[in-house]
Amino acid sequence: MAGNIPLVGFHDILCVFAAGHKAYIKLSDKDPYLLPYLFKLLEQLNKKTKFYFEIIEFLKDFDAVIATGSNNSARYFEAYFNKVPNIIRKNRNAIAVLTGSETQEELQNLGYDIFQYYGLGCRNVSKIYVPRNYDFTLLLEALYEFREIVLNDKYKNNFDYNFALYILNQTPHLANSCIILTEDKSLQSRIAGLHYEFYEDIKNVEKEIETHAEEIQCVIAKDNLLQIPTLPFGKAQAPELWDYADGVDTMQFLLSL
């Protein structure tokens, strides 16, 4: 299990259960409580469910693997689990494409996509594409509605550290006391940070997204803006049951074993 946000591996466990397989679960040190409690609730509803879930410290005697980690840990996973069927997930992020015509409500909804779970999820928006000469004023005002996020000490420490770093390095940036915007081509931004990139033609954005498809979990934009699947503002962290991580059909993988 990954541990970047609470119950982040729940969908995988649900799929394993629905496919009729037994799950051997290695919990993340960062999320050790919620899943065991959930299993106790399931057992109260039906004692037979106890057979399908087993929390273990060491992986052995397994037939297939689903593992999630960073790009670095994924290399070890791929080497260690290469003899069994597997799904190995790496770092991904969400992006948003803006036109400058977004309403205040849409921009505030985008704030949920950025700030929910402190921006730690693979579906959190870490970069936005904006048209040349985009006015950031309304966006910064909308995101300021989430200013209470700095009451979390760890988040505030990251904000202060990165803010100081940009000032010392004289890096051009925009800030509103809860998030820092910098122009950067990277899809992955620092905690309390958001990258942006200007575009001249929306078709170039689509090409950019296609080029980096394996690094992008989902795309947020207005309906019909792009010729690729997108989600409405505020829906990045509300996937449907059939929205499989990394676009890999987990159920099909499990049913083929």
Structural notes for this entry:
By secondary structure, the protein is α/β, with parallel strands linked by helices. The protein folds into two domains: 10-90 and 242-255, no CATH class; 93-220, 3-Layer(aba) Sandwich (Aldehyde Dehydrogenase, Chain A, domain 2), CATH 3.40.309. The protein is built from eight helices and ten strands. The strands form three sheets. Strands 7-8-9-6-5-10 form a six-stranded mixed sheet, sandwiched between helices. The model has no long low-confidence stretch (mean pLDDT 96).
Radius of gyration: 20 Å
Helical fraction: 25-40%
Return residue spans where pLDDT drops below 50 for at least 5 consecutive residues.
Answer: none
Which fold name fills CATH's third level, the topology of the largest domain? Aldehyde Dehydrogenase, Chain A, domain 2
User: Total number of β-strand segments?
Assistant: 10
**SS-based class:** alpha/beta
Query: What shape does the CA trace take?
Result: globular
Total number of domains: 2
CATH architecture of the largest domain: 3-Layer(aba) Sandwich
